[in-house]
Amino acid sequence: MTCTACGTVNTPDSRFCKHCGVALQVLCSRCATVNTPDSSFCKACGAPLTQVAPAPPPRATDLAIDGALRGKVAEVVKVLGGLNCGRCGYRTCAENALAIVRGEAPPHSCVQGGEEAARQIRAILGQPERPSFGALLWEQLTSIKLAIVLIVAIVLLSIIGTVIPQGRDAFFYTVSYGEAGKNIITALQLDRLYHSWYFLTLLILLALNTGACALKRFRVSWELLRKPVEARSADEIAQLPTQAKLDARLFEKLQELLTQRRYRVQRHGEQLIASKNLWGRLGIDILHVSLIIILIGGVIGGLLGFEDFQVAHKGETFTVARGGFQVRVDDLRVEHYPDSSQVKDWYSTLTVIDNGREVLTKTIEVNEPLTYKGISLYQASFGSDWLGGAELTFRIERVKDGSSEPAGEVTTTVGATFPLEDGRTAKVVAFYPDFIVTQQGPANRSQALNNPAALLEVYNGDQREFTTWTFAQFPEFQHDFFAENPYRFYLAGMKAPEFTGLQIARNPGIPIIYTGFILLVFGLALNFYLPPRRIWAAVKESTLYVGGLGREPREFEPDFEEIIADLSPGSPSPLSPLPSEGEGRQRGEGTQQGMDRGIRSQHKEVSTHG
Amino acid sequence: MDSAFFFYLSAVGYFFAFVFYLLHLIGSPSDQKTGLGIVAAPQPWVLKQTTWGKLATWTTLITVLISTVGMVLRVLEMHRVSDFWMLPVTNTYETLAFFSWAIPLVYLLFEWRYKIRVVGAFVTGLAFLFIALASSPLLSSEVRPLVPALQSYWLVLHVLFTLGGEAFFAVAFGAAALFLWLQRHGGNLQTLKLLDNLSYKAIALGFPLFTLGGLVFGAIWAQHAWGRYWGWDPKETWMLITWFFYALYLHVRVKWGWRDAKTAWLAVGGFAVAMFTWWGVNYLLAGLHSYAG
Predict the structure, then answer these.
(1) Among A88, A92, A145, A554, the residue to mutate for chain B (most B Cβ within 10 A)
(2) ipTM of the assembly?
(3) Is the pLDDT of residue B151 over 70?
(4) Do A155 and B190 touch (CB under 8 A)?
(5) β-strand partners of A377
(6) Quick one: which of B20, B79, B50, B275 has its CA closest to A576?
(7) Contacts of B211 in chain A (CB under 8 A)
(8) Interchain proximity A608–B227, CB inside 8 Å
């Protein structure tokens, strides 16, 4: 049988090429019949064999295995047999073996080997014959599949929560979604989705999954960091996912180049070990742990903290029950931008009174809270109490014989009666800071002083003589519409007691959460900005084998190719996006051209055509 | 001359950069060095392929500088009105201007590092869209005084890092979109591989920035301003959804070995989610962040 990869003639029963090691048999994924590698369909059952040939990309990505684990991988590979049938979901038996040793795939994942292989693998890994319930649970809990399912579920639920307004009353949902809609929403807790039992369950599961994954990963990371990087032989280097074969004379230059690139280089005769950023491996562990810390902080804050809202007028003292102290509002102030009605800031001067003693006075503003006994008071809003206690000043005119004359000013409040010059009395019936007319009659649009209006009644003795509307922004309304009235009233001044809206909150989880934040950013930076790199080189039969491992083969490849390109100057950079002149330009032909210098990377053979 | 003038000028600049990158991208088949050879017709392109490319790079660089001048002027104008030294990230107009400054800047870093110009058309096209939207009559370029809640340096850090991270996502989006397009129109494998790697690199570099800006600084600001670091406000929730989406991308890529078309679609989808968080939430869903609209 002739090897399709290198052309070497092998014996008919060979499963692998004796020269290059490529599989000479293709296993049917339906009936497990052995076919020749060039067959398109299984000779026994007719199932297409093509899906085996463009194998799925490797899953065990960083191949970060050293020391004792590496020995185990070799033993497991032997058990798996090396048929590379792909039915386990991995491209090669070696990758499946790696995943099994790292705990990412179960010992029984080899379809071909079946129970017998699983038994032997468990023996190699030192696991009990039959996996215990705990082991199975652990396997599920640490699976990346669980993480992804949980994240997708959380994302979908979160989207629902942003579409359905949260935390409104039953009436709102009835109006918006109808009676049936309201019933569904309340039954499924969609009105407080983020606090529903099922959402919290998903979050807790994700935290457990994250923690379990981090723990499992950390065992490998620690193993790697604790031990020095071991030398690898030329044959071992040839097995690495990213490697190249070069002229042995480039050995010295490689060492120099790697030193220049800030690799820590060790040389043992004709073998070379170079590494950098190895601590970057811990980034993933740190950031996953940090996510759990943040969640714990959130739970602690949710259980032990509180959030409250307090409205207070100037001079008022209120009690913060949860803190057992009182707060007096000494002063309130609004600052506007010069020549503008735009608010620049709100200030409240607060005095904390604890046990009858004034302990602290501070002027708070937006973004500048006061904190006492772990409880913070935030300037959240500000307003004038126009509906509660407006103080109105009216300029009064008396109309006599068609002409009007001033009849004094009066400052009063809503509901109060005041005397007029000739013994008549007037009463302020209502005040609207933001007057509009609706189908139900006059109404107030907001608490802001946008269109102030007052309704007055004038009495002659007990007899109501007339009713009149006056508008601060439209004073002409008085003489245009109420020309016959003996008195005209103009709104000359308006004052209302100001109130401050204070958010009062205590969150003992904050220090924990902030610690988590720092670790999160630190872990992310370590992971993404200091990618770990290990490069091995060895000389065998005047060929220099160079190979390396990064965090991920493709993430490492460009770096590696740059090094190789620097080693053989004059040749075009392997990174040049296109084949250079003279090379094939038709579709697909460029594939192998860029790799003429002998860079072989497993991933390049993976077709990019979807 | 005010900042709006410079931003307007940068819109013109990005448009020309876009055209030059496009000419470079579709290129003539006779010039084999960098062209993709998509157009079969011979040589209608006046200038050589590489010349168009260089012209595009320089136009982008100069436009980024013009945009930078606009930024500096805007800071001065804001100080005049508000009396605060803030970066221009306090309303939609300013964030759009900032984003259309950050995207080409991040892209130029990638172009310089990876020596590839093909993504340029997508990226400068995006930058042009954003700054054109800002300069359009839909948005006012007027400098308004800052409302109290926005007077915080946490806000500046929050928006700066979030949009900085999203600029990386935009480059990843450009590379992924081009990947998907080229895959259907017979791009060579070397280019596809490079685009795939570029897209991943951009997300890997942008993700920490996005996390720092969106999650960390956002939460700290909310804690300072409202006394709660997290409130499941629609904007916050969508920010978390975006974060989860990119976390998912990184996991399936690293742990499941997904790549090429699959991850390219995810990179495109991720940017769509990020843009929905920015725009869709403002206009379709209500929440605390509504003043940013």
Answers:
(1) A554
(2) 0.88
(3) yes
(4) no
(5) A370, A504
(6) B50
(7) 520-521, 524
(8) no
